[in-house]
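Minutes, project check-in

Agenda point 3 was the complex the collaborators sent over. CS summarized: two entities, 1524 residues total, and the question is how they sit relative to each other. Sequences were read into the notes so everyone works from the same version.
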Amino acid sequence: MSRPDSLIGSRMPRIDSGPKVRGEAKFTADIKLPRMLQAAVLRSPHAHAVIKSIDTSAAEKLPGVKAVVTGADTAGVKWGVFRYTQDQQLLPVDRVRYLGEEVAAVAAVSEEAAAEALSLIRVDYKPLPVITDVWQAMAEDAVLLHEDHPNNINVHVDIEVGEVEAGFAASHLVREDVFTAPEESYFMSEPYAVVANPLPDGSLELWMPNAAPHQKAKALCNALKMPLNKVIVRKVTIGGAFGGRSDVFPGEFITALLALKARRPVRLVYTREENTLATRQGHAMYTVVKTGVDKDGLVLARDITCYMDGGAYSSTGPIATSVPFLCMEQTYRLPAVRYNGYRIYTNKPVGGMIRVHGRAFAGGVDLQLDMLAEELGKDPLEVRLLNARRTGDTTPTGSKVQSCGLTDCIKEAGKASGWGDKYKKLPPWRGIGLGTNSVQTGFPLGIRGGSQATIKFNEDGGATVVSGVVDNGQGNDNMLVQIAAEVLGLDPGNIQLISADTEMTANDPGAYSMIATFAGGNAMLAAAEDARRQIFEVAAGAMGANPADLVAAGGKVFVAGSPDHGLPLAKVIRMALIQGRPVMGQGSFTPKVDQRREWLSNPQGQLSETFSFGASIAEVAVDPETGLVELLGLWLAQDCGRALNPMLVEGQFEGGATMGGVGGMLREEHVWTENGRCLNPTFLEYKVPLACDMPAMETIIVESLDPTGPFGAKEAGMSIAMSAAQAISAAVSNAIGKPVFDYPLTPDRVLKAIRGEGGAGE
Amino acid sequence: MSRPDSLIGSRMPRIDSGPKVRGEAKFTADIKLPRMLQAAVLRSPHAHAVIKSIDTSAAEKLPGVKAVVTGADTAGVKWGVFRYTQDQQLLPVDRVRYLGEEVAAVAAVSEEAAAEALSLIRVDYKPLPVITDVWQAMAEDAVLLHEDHPNNINVHVDIEVGEVEAGFAASHLVREDVFTAPEESYFMSEPYAVVANPLPDGSLELWMPNAAPHQKAKALCNALKMPLNKVIVRKVTIGGAFGGRSDVFPGEFITALLALKARRPVRLVYTREENTLATRQGHAMYTVVKTGVDKDGLVLARDITCYMDGGAYSSTGPIATSVPFLCMEQTYRLPAVRYNGYRIYTNKPVGGMIRVHGRAFAGGVDLQLDMLAEELGKDPLEVRLLNARRTGDTTPTGSKVQSCGLTDCIKEAGKASGWGDKYKKLPPWRGIGLGTNSVQTGFPLGIRGGSQATIKFNEDGGATVVSGVVDNGQGNDNMLVQIAAEVLGLDPGNIQLISADTEMTANDPGAYSMIATFAGGNAMLAAAEDARRQIFEVAAGAMGANPADLVAAGGKVFVAGSPDHGLPLAKVIRMALIQGRPVMGQGSFTPKVDQRREWLSNPQGQLSETFSFGASIAEVAVDPETGLVELLGLWLAQDCGRALNPMLVEGQFEGGATMGGVGGMLREEHVWTENGRCLNPTFLEYKVPLACDMPAMETIIVESLDPTGPFGAKEAGMSIAMSAAQAISAAVSNAIGKPVFDYPLTPDRVLKAIRGEGGAGE
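CS then shared the predicted structure for the full assembly.
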């Protein structure tokens, strides 16, 4: 598939490392433009209230204030991922639904003037009853957050495949358990920021951390009522996304409005508190899992009901309502399965997509398998192997699985961790646990089309590659250059990358739902192969060779086997120019998925062209006096199809295990007052794991060589983020000898479980 | 060729007018970047001297100074258009050759600090003899400006085709005359400026007024010893070029060096004086023209010798040495012709390309035909028609002429001006004169390859078109959008243009040598047709139609004749995305020319794929007391192939006649001291014509519909700039009843001619 000196599979240093380690990379908040104004946002102090009036007259008169906007400027423009989930006024006109919701904004010549202007805006509120949990929300007499949603139910996903009740009836053993988890946040290292700059030709250019510049531009052009080619999202260095930069946020809409009104560039930088509360968060969940197995542990039927606290608006939450189920149905073979997922409106910040889709769901499904295995006297690892998804299977909702290395992941992780010597053989208060998961690699989210790439050449043989893919930190920029360099036989330093700018690049779905390498990488591969074909045609003519015999490597084109007799690529490029057939590569890739399925209520058909699979094993020690969990080791195995760059894949594994496993399963949660105020929105109170909190991690790359992935590649890290969380949950329960149903596994919860207190749903 | 509602031939308002009339368009000097430094250049006070030493130590210590550069920083990097004309050290190490040449430069936090730093630099010069004219320069004992060029001859162009002496021998009448003209300048409304910004990834982005961003980047990457894809010339609004922004200038090299050294953005803005003297100027010329005709006035042989004052370095001057000859040989049928062109080094600023190639040459050739006609008792207009180039001809140096409307131009201008009622019938001191000319439309200047364009679409049906063509003010941006809009049936407002940025666009020869519409327009046409083909395929599938029957117009695709039953373009674009075949147009155009000819000494072969032709008629009144010429009327006829936008074509005709005709032939000249100091470098002393100086002009568009031009288009305005100058020269001589041999026709020269004083070469 590639030469011995291939870049594919090499630990090529990342092309973006230099500027980052030198501190020269520019993030959105670093952008300075001449005459740039500073924006600030007035936020609701009530979690639920009617806006009776807003008086901005004093603020407008303050010297240095150049623009003030309220809902009155926007005619209540609403946004939502789908047309039928457009429930959020980007600047509310008549009502606020969570504490911190945007009410007005100003742009002024300094941050101080902007802050003073905010203090001069008078808002007259009439408070409404505050709903802070799903049970309150679904009560018969509850006030409705959105009048057209009875019982405050935002979305109900209802899936049933196969004979579920017959499956339970035929089962040797059936368990039903409840698992819970509160909200968690992303805590990207970069706080959210936006810069908007109106251009003389009537365009508006914007910078912001984002996971999909083209999707962001599309949503913004609708909200701003501007043509799509006049709303330009520019490339900028991004400090993390993790599912939390996918939406359109009021912040970018507001900054755009202020810039258009003031006819000057405007910058808005969120505080850490604003970044936590006024972007998105992971949903709180209450999950009921019922599983029936035969006497070997083979699952015969499963029924899951999940209640998700969605906060005040839809955002990407309706999709997040089905994703935990989909990950589960991809991981295990299920002859019969039922799922009821409810997303409920409450007066809390908005729940969206997050790297670990549903701690209570994923952890519960896997932990319950352990409990069933234990009752059957089986090794949980063997039960996982028995139920594991295999290549060629079709999932319950109808996706064909074209490559699957899950069995190898489980076996390799088991071997590396010494599972056989540890399970049930560890000293007291020590435990080992296994988690498995799968994610879609190329999940279209209702987005039209795939990714497009082009490649142009300079006379000196250097290339410029163009792709809409964005890099949020995971290394996508490097992925694009590495693929192009491999195909063209160029040094990566000879390739200039243009990416993530909606004016300069063609359509791309974005770097979320694990699609960047699969779609964007494949598009770049196609463009590079197209360019190489043209190069070989010109070179073959000059060399009297057959194009099919040519190889591009080391900046030269030569007949295979004769690397010393080639033409320099620069020479071929110049010959092509002179011959009037300049080399210009072009490629696109659109994942083969069922575009018409009804996502929100009943997903069916090919969900994603392919899927990645992972298995993690955790070993822990629990202090029985304090409930504190010490993580002793993590073994992380994933089928990423092909590791284009093992160094980057390992980084994704380790990052996934840190955020999803240690952060998600051991530490992170939000705490709320009954008035809807978050008590821990900053790094001071909300403790994300640091490098020093991590144990030694062993990364195991399983390569299934996907038939359509670029060089066989799929996705790296997501299945680890999920399965590491599940593994830790299983390991802690194994250590204390009892399941723990409530996450994250903070000392108080573990101690309660040890003492036999608390439990599911409390 | 196009629909009745076609944009082609319409007076579509220019897309760039809005920002310009609102004062929002940003020229290079308007660019502000954070931490940007201001640069200033120390210039030689001597026209010729050895640099013994440069001491910058005091300047470097001045607070606020961030970088100082001299020739010592550049190892004497030399530049020239061709490898064998690389005679200019971009920062001289050991010698200065004209007064105002760059010696050192500084970048500081303010213009004041930069100016103060310059005053602290000590340069020790040893003056050398100053050469200010070509006769001094060619003298046996003259000091050589460049040791490897005997007699200070920079270039000698030597062309001989046919039996020249036999032609003269067979002639009924032979004349030999000498015509002269001093230097002239461009006086663009925008002074030259450069901004250079080093980027974190090691690239350097630059803005400057330029006529060919890709050629500028290529030259700069060589000078800076950087890869081509790391030297990025960005798009910026440009206030005129006229041949004077084509080279690489020390200013951009210096600004780049300062920025790289300071690791900060640097801005350099030239004063008007620097813009005149330290960029380029038109050559002073001494031209000997000898023509033999038969008794009807048919030219049988011609011999021209031209001495051009090239100033201190080559620049584009070696090309300018053959261009006046080439224009002449294209215009008239010549069975036998000889040309000797000498470009001579002197201690004056550098001569380069300019809109009117050789006043003394063009005016002389045409005026001499009048003199011959007069002696033969023929009407000069009839003599022009007799000798005029026709479609299908081959020029002496070997170019096939594929379209030529010269005869129509002469006839139409004659009719409109009332030539028949005026020639020899005007009152005393009134005169009428005719000039004709031709220029290459798609002259490659040794540049590899043609132009490339791409088109991408947004989901809302808007398009983004990408081209390397630059707009210097002539309307190229509009030309690109107008062509794409026509082919795609889109409103021009739905098209976003990316152009003139070397990172974002593929190769393009530049907007000089009249190639932009022919090459860039053809590339855009090809890209738009490629996109339309893809659009029709998708639409035909959805409509059950034959792609060949479809039409794109009004933002819709429909079967020809049924505009009410079409699919909106946006819908077709979305269908294509969903079907996994996104629409992406791609096109290139490379003029068919002989790429291997030896340009400098003996041009041969197909010089340009096509040529434009023009004829101008001027009517003047001369005040016999003062010699002042009053221009009474101008009739401007040009074969531009096809007027894509008559409003823009007329603008080019009028601008050409103003600059070339009135400025070039009546007013503009530089005056020098014997020490090589220019006495009139600013608007105060050098009087360019204003709108109020222009007579009524009648523009006559002749459309020959070139077989390969886009929609038949060639070039607009250049043949007018040249022929208007020739017409005015002829009209003045006609008015005073004697030829005037020395240009421009300022009152003193006209008065001398009236009085029978002076004359050729004095």
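Noted in discussion: The radius of gyration of chain A is 27 Å.
Follow-up: revisit at the next meeting once the mutant set is ready.
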